[in-house]
Amino acid sequence: MTLDALTDVAGVRVGHAARAGDGWLTGTTVVLAPEGGAVAAVDVRGGGPGTKETDALDPRNLVQKVEAIVLTGGSAYGLDAASGVMAWLEERGRGVWVGPGPAHVVPVVPAACVFDLGRGGEFRARPDAAMGRAAVESAAASAPGAAVPEGCVGAGTGAVVGQMKGGIGTASTVLDSGITVAALVVANAAGSVTDPETGVLYGELFQGRATYPEGPVHEAANRRLADVAADNGPPPLNTTLAVVGTDADLSKAQAQKLAGTAHDGIARAVRPVHLLHDGDTVFTLATGRHPLDAGDLLALNAILAAGADMVTRAIVNAVRAAESVATPGGTWPSYGELYGAR
Questions:
Q1: Which residue of 36, 88, 242, 286 pairs with 185 in a disulfide if CB–CB is 3.0 to 4.6 A?
Q2: Other CB atoms closer than 10 Å to residue 269's CB: what's the count?
């Protein structure tokens, strides 16, 4: 049985840590690979990324596998959360071996951040190494194949899409080949996730399962969003992050291709996207448990298509799971509050 989550990729675990209230509205999410690591890659399309250790994932460079990926709030300050994850991995001898002893490792922990500074009311309330450690401990303590909490959790705690509340979402599928492809996203976009004429989620239009709200409901939602926009001001520096996971046996170059095509999933669900003030970043993790069909030169294509589809679905799930938030830093209604659960 699958849970429609990134943890449907066997061995991958997800942990969240967050803080809300007293000026806080932010958090960190850690994707923990199976022990021994997974092949990883990244593709950055936004013009204002905040990242750490992404150069190590270039197929031309030395590091082949990583043990964890960090997604965090706090803009560039929040990248400090990766230090807590790095320390936790070092204590367990997990990382790139650099010396003669089992403790001589350097954990390479790629990370990317979203902008949520001040959304709880206090600009200096941001994730640190302790929050990163709490998130990786949460991941490690979870059961194999555990459900992944969605909505206003982890790095999605302070996430916003346009003038609505964003959050964490996840989705998965199993291909005819038996290969699993899944995604986890932090939906925190400056662009809109809804069609301005109807209120339908762009991602659901793409999936062909959109339900159109009644005209009066949409009109009321537009009035509410206009009021919120007047109070909050324009959306600031925002970013959508994703981790696409698969149990396929991919090279770093193939994993990088998957990260690149997965950005199409963001573009289907958010408009506009990949702007100069966005930091849109997609990581991939490939655990290598399921070999590609050696007789099919195009075997990767199905994985590429599924990766983009799962990112779109994960964004929809994030927006639908989000809950309204009001803090001294602003007010962000959820899609469910505006349009009802459908």
A1: 242
A2: 32
